[in-house]
Amino acid sequence: MDVIKPFMGIYSLVDRMKSNSKKCPHISSRLDALQRLVEFVQQKEADQLSEDVIKALKKLNIILESAREVLSKFNEECVMEHMMKSSGYKLEFENLNKSLTDAFVTLSGALHVHQEEKLVEQESMLAEQENKLQELEKKLVKQEKKLVEQENMLAEQENKLQELEKKLVKQEKKLVEQENMLAEQENKLQELEKKLVKQERKLVEQENRLAEQEDIVQRVESKMEYQSTGYYCILQ
């Protein structure tokens, strides 16, 4: 609802009669106050206004139309001073001034109530937001604690992993040492086996030589015994 437009037509009528009317300054001041109030209200969206404020604006629109008719009729009179002395116009101006004052009070009151309701609503929303913020902060604190715990657990696991890696390195070194020792032992065993083979061969050779020598000795003994027996027979 555009309530500002009626103000412009009324202002032009008031300007033409200001010099001749003692009531016009009061009406003009009422219009100024109402216009500032309406301009403030119309800065808001329609869905942001309460029903009381909308009703007050509709009532003000009717009053402004009535004021325009009164002022137009007053300006159409040919003799201005004579009309100002007319008690009928004085009464109409007084009623108009009163209506504008009532409209200002009604709109101001409705706007004040609306602002208070809006303030209460905003305070409630602010309280809800603060509660939500507190809950979010609590959740954030819990998450931070959990994150710290997880980081500590991760650090412990990393330490354990490092220890296991160190143990693994030691075991690998020990395994390499054992493999080297085993290789040395195998080499020594091979050398011993070679020596044993040589010794066995040498022993076989010695046994063969010993057998040959025993055979020779037996032959010699047999020959000596034969010779000894023959010599004995000759002596007899």
From TrEMBL:
Domain named Mixed lineage kinase: residues: 9-129
Pfam families, alphabetized: MLKL_N
Residue ranges the record marks as coiled coil: 112-223
Top-level taxon of the source organism: Eukaryota
Family: Belongs to the GOLGA6 family.
Keyword DNA-binding: no
Species the sequence originates in: Larimichthys crocea
Protein name, UniProt field: Mixed lineage kinase domain-containing protein
GO terms of biological process kind: cell surface receptor signaling pathway
Nucleotide-binding among keywords: no
CDD domains: MLKL_NTD
Keywords recorded for this protein, A-Z: Coiled coil
InterPro entries: Adaptor_Cbl_N_dom_sf, GOLGA6L, MLKL-like_MCAfunc, MLKL_N
SUPFAM superfamilies with a match to the protein in the record: Tropomyosin (SSF57997)
